């Protein structure tokens, strides 16, 4: 009976481990993309500000 519980516990830990790896990989892929989008939007704002200053 204890052996069955150990297999079940091991399986649960294995599933949690797989989910953690998937979340870690998706975070590493998504994080640079979000930072790049934010940087592009900051640069667009700065360009607009400089164009407005040039017109004035």
Automatic annotation (TrEMBL):
Its keywords, alphabetically, are: Membrane, Transmembrane, Transmembrane helix
Q: Where are the transmembrane segments?
A: 6-25
Identification of the protein by name: DUF4083 domain-containing protein
């Amino acid at each position: 009976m204890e052996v069955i519980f150990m297999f079940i516990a091991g399986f649960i830990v294995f599933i949690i481990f797989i989910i953690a790896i998937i979340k870690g990989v998706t975070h590493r892929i998504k994080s640079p993309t979000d930072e790049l989008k934010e940087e592009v939007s900051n640069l667009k704002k700065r360009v607009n500000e400089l164009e407005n200053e040039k017109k004035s």
